[in-house]
Amino acid sequence: MRKRNPLILIKNDQGFTLVELMITMAITAVILLSVYAAYSIQSKSYSTQREVAKIQQDLRGALYMMEFDVLNAGRDPNLSNRYGLTDIRSYDYHTGSLDNTMLPAAFVRPVEPSTICFASFPVLEFTSLRTDTNNDNIGDAQMTIRYQVYDFNNDGRLDLGRRVNGGAPDLVAEGVVAVGYAFAYNPNPDGHYKMDRTAPAIPGTLGNVIWAADTNGDSLLDTNIDGTGDGEITAADDTDGNGVIDSLDLGGPLASSVDLRNIVAVRIWLLLQSERPSPENVIDRNYYVVGNRIIPPPNQAPFNDRYQRRVETVTLALRNFKKS
Q1: Fewer CB atoms inside 10 Å of the end CB: C or N, the chain?
Q2: Residue 297 confidence (pLDDT)
Q3: DSSP assignment string, 149-188
Q4: Rounded to whole angstroms, how far apart are CA atoms 214 and 252?
């Protein structure tokens, strides 16, 4: 038999050297750190996107529900009633009591996890779904629906709630920073759907719809909040920069107060905030327009926190308007 060289056997049994092991461990550590860094980035991004997706889902669901209710408001088989808006005043979110004063100038910074920004929020109350329940060709059943901001579930976060006929509220959206409304009106109601418009910028063309709000708490429209006349409500309409578009701004007071029965369209804003701050270093430095408010006011610093916020708006034409 062939004899094996013992030197060769000794050489093959030596294994890795200490230097080789250290190099291998270093390469492995670099790979693991890279994998962990990628995982950490993806995990933070996923957490942020999950919060944003939740906000967007709440916004879509809330606005869809409000749109359904508002578009059915005043529906009547006999067409005998006007559109049913009954209350657009601001109420204190703590007690639900009426607040006839202007919005407070001071902006209260949200303290985790609170989203409280103002002492009062406007409500949207209207009669809806007038139907003939006993088949006598007379509309005899209706609901009074009221959307208002309050901490309905006592979790420290403000909610948008929906109350029917003064009953227990249904939760519509959580994490409410603000809700706002603007209204287009018809100064000469004649039973037809149309909107009052400003003088046209170009002769022979239609002007912009007048969007107004109740700024003194009497449930009547009193102020043109589209002072620039471009059909949009933006920070540019807050010409004095105090965060509230009111009668002192460019739009100014209306010639006379407008009854809610003359409203033919409503624009709804809803601003929501995430339940948790983002783990990413994403700072919210935005200013948001919600109805006739700028949040936060332009003369104050932005939020400068890692909470995610989104605002959505929808404009609804109230085609159930009917001259009484």
Answers
A1: N
A2: 83
A3: EE-TT-SSS-EEEEEETT-PPEEEEESEEEEEEEEEE-SS
A4: 12
